[in-house]
Structure formats: structure tokens, C-alpha cells
User: What shape does this take?
Amino acid sequence: MGGAVSLYALQKLMFVLNRDPKAQVRFKTDQKDLLDEYELTPEERGALEKPDIGLLYVLGVNGQLLMHFAALVGMEWSKYIQSMRDGIAEHGPVRAGIYAMTTEMDEKVAGV
Amino acid sequence: MSLVFAGISSHAPGITGRASQADPDLRETFYGAYRRMGEAIKAAGAEVVIVVAAEHFANFFMNNMPAYAIGMADHYEGPIEDPEWLGIPKTRIPGDAALSKRIIESVMQEVDVAFAEEWKFDHGIIVPLHFLTPGFDTKVIPVNINCQGPPLTPLHRAWAFGKALRRACDEQPEKIAIVGTGGISHWPATPDSGKVNEPWDREFLSRWSANDKDALLSYTDGATYREAGQGGFEIRTMISVAAAAGGKGDIWFYSPIPIFAVGCTVGVMDIA
Assistant: This one.
């Protein structure tokens, strides 16, 4: 179990990445040291390193943080939406937070 | 002089970021209503625009989350998002720290509000400004209601906050506009993006336009989450504007635009 504390740390890192251009550079050039500063479970850390948007979604990362993280790693919006569906298919339902999926896998309400 | 204009509008990032993927006719009708609201703000003589938004962790996080916050700076920056992703270039937006301070002091008589001397605008504020004050040359006072990280402020407090903002505005010599931004029902940043509960939205807008306080405050977060998604929590911004304006509303545009991931809305309300 990751637990609430560690999900908090995971989201805190994404909040920092969202705001701080230096942290964005470190995420690309000095990632190990940056991630060491946060109390992450191996699963969370692996999801960031990959990066595995689908797993991060399932872990319960707030969508507004994840959406920007996906943009930061260069993922186009429709691919980001599909990655979350793929995460559910692979890892099961969202485990925490308020961003659960309520549509069907093939529903694609926005057309993507 | 006081509050001279009140309105509500959508702020979803897709409105600008995914513009090219929308039906052009629908998009341009929506944009037209949005720009018309900007013209109405100008025609009302507003010197300052208060934007009551629900931000998305651009400034506030769960380490120290204010239920209500008001900016108090002479300038702000935005967007925090990648400009190409959002379709809005980075810019500096003028503020008015002295006016903010007067408003904050007045609001504090009734509602405990946090203040912030720095503030990076995310799409919740910069998308509305892109249409309302497109030169980014009108002074803005950013206001945030936490609609992202529960526990969330109760709706009746959002109403009280709106009333306090109104009283604070009426005490000032400046002409002030207030705009609440957010979605009604929507499921942004999930695989459900694009889903909109149109009947729920129309019912909310009917209550908002009637300025029916009891009906507006009768929503519960549990029911809103089920029927209107986590994005529905942003009705707080619109409720606070109804409380501030006090009159009846008029919806200039409403239509779900799925690629924008929200029921796109432009509405104004009489100041009463």
C-alpha cells in the first residue's frame, strides 16, 4: 500500500514541477536526486521514471496535476486521455482521490 | 464607485488549447458571446476585473490550502501552463495591490480570507482574460475558491464570501467588475473528458439566473460528484457571483463542446 502520505509526496513533486522551471530541468537532467527528495514508494517512483501516466492516474494523482505532468513529458492530449484508460485496463480502478473514471473503455466522449 | 458588472464563464484549457479541433461555427458563436461579455465589461466602465476562479494547483497546494484567497500584487504572471499547450502566450497582467488590500480588509470583516502577494495565473483565470480583456491591459484581482483539494468550503460559505465581496466592492471608489469562472458539470483531466450532463447544467443555470439562493445552496458535494463530476465542485465560483450581484441572470451562451471538455457558458447578471 502506498498510503495517503506517499500519494501526498507524489503530488507535491508534481505541484513543484508545475510551478518551477528549475525543477522541470532537474526532472530531465538530474532526476534521481530530485526524486530522492520525495518520500515515494517504489511503485510511484517507477511510474515517474518511466513515465507511466496510466499508473500515476490509477495511484490517485489529481488529474489537474497529471494533465500538466503529461504535457511536461511531451504527451499530446488525446494520447494522455488514452494512457489513463490503458492504466485502468492494466492496473484496475483508480485507488484514491476524486478523478475516477466513469465512462466505458470505448466511450471516448470527446472523440479521442 | 462599486460593483458595475457581474458574469460567469467557462475556463477549460481546451477552449483555447484545442480550438482547431472544435466545430468552427459552434466555436465562433461561443467565442463571440465571450468577447461580447468583454465589451460589456468595458461599456460598464470597469477599471478593475475581479476574477473568482477555481485554480488547479498553480499557487495553492495541500500543504497549506486556503478555502478563499485574494491576490494582493501590482502585477501577476501567466499562464503557468506551456503556452503552446494552452494556446496563450506568457504575459504579465497588471494588478492593484492597494485596492486588493482595501477589499481584503473589508471581506475579512465577514469571511476569513487568505491573501497572496504573488500569484501565477493558470487557465482558470487566463482563458477568461484572453476573451474578456484580450490586451491584458486591464487591472485584475485574482480570487480563488478551493474546488480541487477536499475538504472544500461549503456552498453557503461561498455565498457569504460573494456577499462580502459585494460589500467590499461597494465601499471602493473604483468601478469593479466580477466574473466567476469554472465548469458546471464536467469531468476534466479524466478519461471521461468531454462528458457533460446537459440537463444538470441547464437546471443549475436556471437556478443561477433566477438567483434562487435556496436552490443554489441545496446541492450536496456527494450528489454533485455523482451527477456533475469533480469539475462540478466549481459551481462555488458561480454561486459567489450570484451572491455578489444579487440580481437576475441572463445566459448568453450555453452548449456542450466535448473537445473543450465542458458545457461552454457565458452569462451575465444584473447588479441589484
Notes: The two ends of chain B are 14 Å apart (CA to CA). The mean pLDDT of chain B is 97.
